[in-house]
Amino acid sequence: MTKIGLAVTGSFCTFRNLLKAVDDLLAHDFDITPVFSYNVSSFDTRFFKAEDFRREIETRTGKHPITTIVEAEPIGTSMGLELMLVAPCTGNTLAKIAHGITDTPVTMAVKAQLRNNRPVVLSISSNDALGANAKNIGALLNTRNVYFVPFSQDAPESKSNSLIADTALIVPACEAALRGKQLEPVIF
User: Fold this and answer.
1) What are phi and psi of 6, to 5 degrees?
2) What is the pLDDT of residue 14?
3) DSSP structure class, residue 64
4) Least buried of 11, 97, 132, 179, by fewest C-beta within 10 Å?
5) Could you tell me if residue 76 is left (phi over 0), alpha (psi between -120 and 50 degrees) or otherwise beta?
6) What does pTM read for this prediction?
7) Residue 130 falls within a domain, yes or no?
8) Domain span at 40
9) Which three-class secondary structure state does DSSP give residue 54?
C-alpha cells in the first residue's frame, strides 16, 4: 500500500470530481492522509458545506483531515508519506508553493515533502493559470520533485486564462511521480 497525502485547496467546484479521484486512488491501493486548507476546513459554499465535505473525505479515507500547520509540519518525517498530491491546486496555492510561502496546512505539507526529497503532484484548477500564474507554473515545471497532473484549458471561449487538470489522470500521474517521471503530455 502506497501512503500519500491529499492536500485539498478551495477550488470548490471541482470537489465532486475530486471525490471520484479519491475513490480511484483507494481502488489502486493508495492509503490517503487528507490535509485541508483553512478555506476548505471552514467555508460553506454552493457546492459543499465544509462539514459535509469533511465527512465525505473521512468516510472514504478513514482518517480525520489535518487542518493546522502544526499538524502538517511532521508530515515529511514521522508520517512516512511517499507522495503529496495537491488536488485541486488553486492559483493561490500554486503561487505560494512556487515562492516558498508556508502559511497554510497545505503549503506546510508540501514544504515537508519537498525538504525530504519526496514527490509532490499538483492537480491545478485556476482561472488565472495562463495569466498571473503562468510564471509560477513555469517555475514549478522546472522544480525538482514537483509533478503535474496533465491539464488543459477548460473553457477557452469564456475563461481564456483558466486551466484545469484532468482528475481521471491523477492515479497515473501519481504512479509516474513515484518513479520520478512526469506523466506526458503535461498539456493536452
Assistant:
1) -120, 105
2) 85
3) P
4) 179
5) alpha
6) 0.95
7) no
8) 2-117+137-168
9) helix
